[in-house]
TrEMBL record:
Species assigned in the record: Diphasiastrum complanatum (Issler's clubmoss)
Protein's name in the database: Uncharacterized protein
Length: 1051
């Protein structure tokens, strides 16, 4: 009967139908397949879209109907709930037997049943005990580092406010007590508590309240509102950037929060998922080497990136590669016919297509090569009932590309039964398609230790063959003396394929005698039916006995299709000084291959591999004690990290680069308290870091370790539900709106459609937003200090009487109208350099991670500038107006004239200051800056004509008092110029004798050297990149050094 997920309890038996998610962690009991297998999609757990094969225990296979569970009783003893996705330890007691349970029998919540009509399972973990829930993390509240630092600046200003208010109040209390009785005109005997000489303490306390309100302009309350307005407008520009719009999916960039705009410009480390983030999660069969002859003509994304780095035309580079292929084939021309693109197949070479392979030398070897591709696999064919086309569901994308390639070559994998594989293959004699059935006798599965898989089959002639495919190093070690004919030449082809970023696999076969197979099969069946910890070791030993004396036929070269522009993006990010870590759920070999494909790894880079595949750990596992295994694992991991760190420290070659590669099991120990500092130190010392077979929880823990351990800004980027923890734990989370659903996007701070857009998001928008926000905040402090301290000086000038120098409306509108719009223009439109120059000079980005525009020296410098300006405004204004007649009738200036003059000087000074600070002017900046000054005078006119009861000291002060007086305008000119001189001299000196990077670029652009002197422009570009060990640039430089070393060697 149907039941809601939340009502499931441990021990319930559940039937899950095809294409449904598992509601809890289940122990698989049986399935619709007679042999008890099922196919599971784990995209929400590890980001992989390829199917995983699960298999129930043989003892429960027959439980395949509802009625058979009426009397079903069993006891499961297993590990406690934990977040480990790839391990499981337990036993099932059923029908008087105790059977071992492993990950192969566990169906995890949030994975989906595929290509299987139904499965039965018993709930072992439910609710928050399930592994996917154990991997979940609470969403954090994120604030940018600038905002956090701004809090400390506010605390500092608040302390200054308390200090000056307290000083003024103490002085006022003393004066009230000592001097007030002598001020007869204030009627000291008939006054209020505010000025009572008999109660100076109360008067001082009440004055403190007045002072805190009056000097409150030192605290820029409106800054928070202005920042929010600016950030919202900045996100609008990010969302509207056409350079980050993906036309194929109709998805623009999406800033889902405005809190972290400036944080984009301060990223130090990027932690990235692989599948669906760096790659398209799509393998394409590109090239192959058969019988020592290379086939296939094409160019990979890595080769395209290298060509662009060398300044070559990609089409010309492809022609160059084609000529090289001709030379490798003894000068024979290669014809190419471009047909419709087939998903998973990008092979171009007419020598093998359309049955032409039968005319090639060694056609029998080619036939065997194609046959191995078609048969040595575990894919499931699905026929489209409408079109009749065959599609495949494979355990891995590369295996899917192999069966597609076999089909395109004329060997179509058509049907799979429980015991056989049916292939429609081209008969070289008749030239027609024939259907052949291969009976599968045994399947020797792939694992990370074996690095190969094999099938043993019987063909229609009764002959027994072993077909094997695996890593080239493993296959070459198992070749017989007669099977090495093509080994030497193929090794050269494999090296070239590896340099091009292709994933290679070697293919071999062996013909078996009946008696040999029968003897071996007895051993294999015994190992297969063994229950206990030794089962896997016995299976591996049995496989070793038969996988020998192989005959080598060739190798495949598959491109793990990177997203467009990924190598170039990684190159640019590395040149900008960013570190890139890859955290993936893929196998070790897959992670390394994609590392080469996207240029995070390269030939000549020393790989430091940390894993538990060590003799000490294996011997402890054989002993079987859990504590012993854990202790041996910790000691092994610690020693490996010590050795790796020592190797890095002792290396004296500046050109050598190191890469750290660690798997999930080892990482679980490396993240423990005693080892995580060593792991982080080693990782920081390496040029690139790749963590494979990691769970979602481990992704979040690694991100937290980097964020807290380095104290630098981290960015997590991914596209699947398994990346949510990492995205939430990082300072900035970026979601890829790809094919794996919207979970990552919903948890992210920024969403983009392709990884390559990260380059523009950080190097352009991040750089701009950081400098805009940092300069804007510093300027805000400057203008508030400039204005606020003039109030304090006037208070001191008037014996801290509490009288304000300005009209109430003047003070209220200072931050709201007269100085607010220019600072918004600064925060939204300011550009030290253009977007194109940002990308051409990526090292400019380091101004953000180094925090060059919002450090304490710069903040205090702006504050000192405000302090100086306030002194000039007050003392110049009071001294100019104090000792001479101001009006035509000989009267001196009063409070209203002094206030209007000082206020006008403040408005002119702070608005002219922002004009000096701006690098990039548009008509908008001009209108807002000079318009703000104009608005002040318009307001003064309108407000001055109101009833004196409303306008008070501003009544007709412009027309009747200050405007007709030349000294007013001269005072504004003198005070404004004097206030701005220190900043002007500082920036002039800095640009002349100690220029920053953007100053030099601005000067070059102003002198038009980028067009008039291209060599100088290119030379400066070369300087403005961080020396990097990853990316196509580093790969090209490494090849150049290698060629130079070869030229230096004596002949």
């Amino acid at each position: 009967m149907p039941r809601e997920w939340k009502k499931l309890r441990v021990g319930d038996v559940v039937m899950v139908e095809k294409d449904n998610f598992f509601p809890s962690d289940l122990l698989m009991l049986s399935s619709s397949y007679p042999d008890g297998i099922c196919y599971v999609e784990t995209m929400n757990l590890d980001g992989e879209t390829n199917l995983k094969l699960k298999k129930c225990l043989e003892r429960t296979v027959e439980l395949d109907e509802d009625g058979e569970f009426a009397k079903f009783q069993g006891v499961v003893k297993c590990e406690d709930p934990n977040p480990e996705l790839y391990t499981f330890v337990g036993n099932l007691e059923y029908a008087g037997e105790i059977m071992s349970i492993g990950p192969q029998q566990i169906l995890l919540r949030d994975s989906k049943l595929r290509n299987t009509q139904f499965v039965y399972g018993v709930v072992i973990f439910s609710g928050h005990d399930t592994k996917v829930m154990q991997n979940s993390t609470a969403p954090p509240s994120k604030r940018s580092s600038i905002e956090r630092k701004m809090d400390y600046v506010i605390y500092f200003l608040f302390t200054v406010l308390l200090l000056i208010a307290s000083v003024g109040s103490i002085d006022f209390g003393i004066r009230t007590h000592s001097d007030m009785p002598n001020w007869w005109y204030l009627q000291p005997n008939n006054t209020t508590v505010f000025y009572d000489p008999k109660q100076p303490e109360k008067a001082a306390l009440l004055h403190l309240v007045t002072a805190l309100i009056l000097y409150g302009y030192l605290i820029p309350i409106s800054l928070y509102v202005s920042i929010e307005v600016v950030k919202v407008l900045q996100t609008t520009f990010i969302n509207q950037d056409r350079q980050m719009y993906h036309e194929e999916t109709d998805k623009p960039a999406n800033a889902r929060t405005s809190n972290l705009n400036e944080e984009l410009g301060q990223v130090d480390t990027i932690l990235s998922d692989k599948t669906g983030t760096l790659t398209c999660n799509m393998m394409e069969f590109l090239k192959c080497s058969i019988a020592g002859t290379p086939y296939g003509h094409g160019i990979t994304e890595v080769e395209k990136a290298t060509a662009r780095r060398l300044g070559k035309d990609v089409n010309g580079f492809e022609s160059h590669l084609s000529k090289n292929d001709e030379m490798m084939n003894g000068g024979a021309g290669i014809e190419m016919t471009v047909g419709p693109h087939v998903k998973g197949f990008n092979f171009k070479d007419d020598r093998l297509m359309d049955g032409n392979w039968i005319h090639e030398p060694n056609s029998d070897v080619i036939q065997m090569f194609f046959r191995i591709l078609a048969v040595c696999q575990t894919a499931i064919p699905e026929e489209n009932e409408e079109t009749g086309e065959i599609s495949y569901e494979a355990e891995s994308p590369d295996e899917g590309s192999f069966v597609v390639a076999a089909r395109e070559f004329g060997f179509e994998f058509y049907k799979r039964t429980q015991t056989s594989v049916i292939v429609r293959e081209l008969d070289p004699i008749s030239g027609k398609k024939v259907q052949r059935e291969y009976k599968i006798l045994n399947l020797l599965e792939f694992n990370s230790t074996r690095k190969r898989m094999s099938v043993i089959l019987r063909n229609e002639d009764g002959q027994i063959f072993l077909f094997c495919k695996g890593a080239d190093s493993v296959i070459f070690d198992r070749l017989g003396k007669q099977g090495r004919s093509y080994e030497t030449t193929t090794r050269g082809h494999l090296a070239k394929y590896g340099d091009a970023g292709l994933r290679t696999l070697a293919l071999a076969y062996r013909k078996l005698d009946e008696s040999e197979y029968a003897d071996w099969n007895t051993i294999f069946l015994k190992a297969k039916t063994t229950i206990g910890a030794d089962r896997d070791a016995m299976l591996d030993s049995a496989s070793e006995l038969i996988e020998r004396d192989l005959f080598f036929v060739g190798a495949t070269a598959v491109e793990d299709k990177l997203q467009k522009g990924v190598p170039e993006c990684i190159d640019r990010l590395a040149q900008a000084g960013l570190k890139i870590w890859v955290l993936t759920g893929d196998k070790l070999e897959t992670a390394i291959n994609i590392g080469f494909a996207c240029s995070l790894l390269r030939q000549g880079m020393k790989q430091i591999l940390i894993s538990l595949d060590m003799p000490g750990v294996k011997s402890a596992e054989d002993y079987g004690d859990k504590e012993t295994i854990a202790k041996a694992s910790r000691e092994s991991i610690s020693q490996q990290m010590i050795n790796g760190q020592q190797e890095v420290n002792e290396d004296t070659d500046e050109e050598r680069a190191f890469a750290l590669i660690i798997d999930g099991k080892a990482l679980s120990y490396a993240l423990e308290d005693g080892l995580k500092d060593k792991f982080l130190q080693l990782a920081i010392s390496c040029a690139s870091v790749i963590c494979c077979r990691v769970s979602p929880k481990q992704k979040a823990l690694v991100t937290k370790l980097v964020r807290e351990g380095t104290g630098r800004t981290t960015l997590g980027i991914g596209d699947g539900a398994n990346d949510v923890g990492m995205i939430q734990e990082a300072d900035i989370g970026v979601g890829i709106s790809g094919v794996e659903g919207m979970q990552a996007v919903m948890a992210s701070d920024f969403a983009i459609a392709q990884f390559r857009f990260l380059e523009r998001l950080l190097i352009v928008h991040g750089h701009w937003c950081y400098k805009r926000i940092a300069t804007m905040i510093c300027y805000f402090f400057y203008k508030n200090i400039t204005f606020g301290l003039t109030l304090f000086y006037y208070e001191a000038y008037t014996s801290f009487s509490g009288q304000s120098a300005y009209n109430d409306w003047f003070m209220s509108l200072f931050n709201v109208i007269f100085t607010s719009l220019p600072v918004l223009a600064l925060g939204v439109f300011e550009q030290d350099v253009s977007a194109r120059v940002c990308l051409q000079f990526p090292a400019l980005y380091q101004q953000g991670p180094k925090n060059m525009f919002f450090n304490w020296p710069r903040i205090l410098g702006w504050m000192c500038n405000g302090f100086y300006s306030s002194l000039v405004i007050f003392f110049f204004a009071t001294n100019i107006l104090q000792y001479q007649a101001f009006r035509n009738d000989g009267k001196v200036a009063g409070l209203e004239i002094l206030g209007a003059t000082m206020y006008s000087c403040a408005i002119w000074t702070v608005n002219c200051q922002i004009a000096l600070a701006i690098s990039h002017f548009t008509w908008i900046q001009h209108v807002l800056i000079w318009g703000s000054i104009l608005i002040w005078y318009v307001f003064l006119v309108v407000y001055g004509f109101l009833n004196p009861i409303l306008s008070t000291t501003a009544y007709k002060v412009l027309f009747e008092a200050v405007a007709p007086a030349p000294i007013y305008w001269l005072a504004i000119l003198l005070i404004t110029v004097s206030s701005l001189l220190p900043y002007f001299f500082h920036i002039s000196f800095q640009r002349t004798f100690n220029p920053m990077d953007h100053h030099i670029i601005q000067e070059i652009r102003y002198l038009q050297k980028d067009t008039n002197d291209p060599e100088m422009w290119a030379r400066e570009q070369g300087k403005a990149v961080h020396r990097t060990s990853i990316g196509p640039t580093a790969m090209v430089e490494a090849k150049v050094r290698q060629l130079k070393d070869l030229l230096r060697e004596p002949l």
